[in-house]
Amino acid sequence: MMVAKRIMALGLVAFLGLPLSAWAQPASALRVEYHQWQVGKDGVRQELSYTEKLYRQENALWVEREVPEAAQRDHDDHHHGGLGHKHADVVGAPLWIQRNDNGNVDVKLVDRYEQRLIDIAPPYYGNVGYDGHWMETWALVDPASLSSLEPSSVADDGVETYQIQRGSQHITLVWNPERRYVVSIRARDEHGLSGRTIEAKEIADSEPAPWTTLEGYKNRDYSDLLD
Known about the structure:
By secondary structure, the protein is mainly β. It is built from two helices and twelve strands, in the order βββαβββαββββββ.
């Protein structure tokens, strides 16, 4: 059964890369749609889709799942109903990642309902959908992994298309080098039994930046919430 975790950029090599300040005006806000599917031995096709918004600065990234209002309301009715809850119920909560000048990252989940900033230590990154690769999360692919490849085509606006073979998977990747993000990734296995797509579009920036609205939030450690 598929597990609803963030789909990273198809296992391409991670690398910190050049400072973002050396790049030409990277896009500051993206809306990213994820879709994956697979056909089981019983012939049943399973599908998983979700959408996230990415707000990006040179050393800060905010990743927020789009949750329909009705789904959020149902969640609140079942889990909060006036009784409160002891443990973190943070599936789909925003992820705030900061990187310092040494390349080290600080990862937090933002629990808006309880107004908590939940520190995530490296052993728990996978629990919150972060694979530890800053650049691959920030740009949806590590640009360094494309440096040894020749694009199959380059559009008039400079957007590059790459055809990549990874084992039995064929990947078509469209990269915007000026705005520094993946426009789309389409992958399909040679037997047609599984595939996935990632599609990103630029959106208006958040005003104010979401990480500037957290005054009064209390810090908690993720491990304390697993008891």
